[in-house]
């Protein structure tokens, strides 16, 4: 199988971390592509009509896309338990929260990179950052017991989201007032699978 991805994409990174955690690198090849909302890669477009990464080209069956779909598939394929039935909806909810953070942070990145300075809306970017910080505050206040519990996909998703904030929006300072989450991330970010998939600005 082939995972169409970009190293800087936090959504692709979720899949890349899981590939390593589940020991699937012998089964899935990572294929780096260059795509954006304004310039879609033809291979990605053939796999995903939305033109987004990641997308997983399977040996049998059509390509699948959306990081949450891919990670569920990979977890089942590997026979691992990153979506445990006993707390499935907690995992899915926290993963969705992390994905929402990524979406808002990416929106800020695209606004700054793809629109002329005169057309950029600081109010809109600030509104996206407010979403990010609402999620950070909620995780710090309500989800730390989950993050420090048995391994699951939600932990990977939150770590990838926070790492993306550091990569693209470090100056905004998400750690301020969120000591528990910052301490958890500092430790989790040292996992070999996180180090192996890290990118620099």
TrEMBL record:
Alphabetically ordered keywords of this record: Transferase
A Gene Ontology cellular-component term: cytoplasm
Domain GST N-terminal: 1-82
Family matches, as SUPFAM superfamilies: GST C-terminal domain-like (SSF47616), Thioredoxin-like (SSF52833)
Molecular-function annotations in GO: transferase activity
Tree of life domain: Bacteria
InterPro entries for the chain: Glutathione-S-Trfase_C_sf, Glutathione_S-Trfase_N, GST_Omega/HSP26, Thioredoxin-like_sf
This protein's name: Glutathione S-transferase, N-terminal domain
Organism per entry: Loktanella fryxellensis
């Amino acid at each position: 199988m082939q995972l169409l991805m970009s190293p800087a994409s936090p959504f692709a990174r979720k899949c890349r971390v899981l590939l390593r955690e589940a020991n699937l690198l012998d089964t899935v090849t990572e294929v780096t592509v260059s795509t954006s909302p304004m310039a879609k890669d033809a291979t990605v477009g053939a796999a995903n009509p939305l033109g987004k990464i990641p997308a997983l080209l399977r040996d049998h069956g059509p390509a699948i896309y959306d990081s949450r779909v891919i990670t569920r598939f990979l977890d089942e394929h590997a026979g691992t338990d990153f979506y445990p039935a006993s707390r499935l909806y907690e995992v899915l909810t926290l993963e969705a929260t992390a994905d929402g953070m990524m979406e808002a942070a990416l929106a800020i990145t695209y606004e700054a990179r793809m629109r002329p300075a005169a057309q950029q809306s600081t109010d809109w970017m600030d509104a996206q950052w407010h979403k990010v910080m609402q999620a950070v505050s909620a995780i710090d206040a309500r989800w730390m017991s989950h993050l420090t519990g048995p391994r699951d996909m939600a932990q990977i998703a939150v770590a990838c989201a926070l790492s993306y904030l550091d990569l693209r929006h470090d100056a905004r300072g998400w750690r301020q007032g969120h000591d528990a989450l910052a301490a958890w991330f500092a430790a989790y970010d040292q996992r070999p699978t996180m180090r192996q998939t890290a990118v620099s600005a």
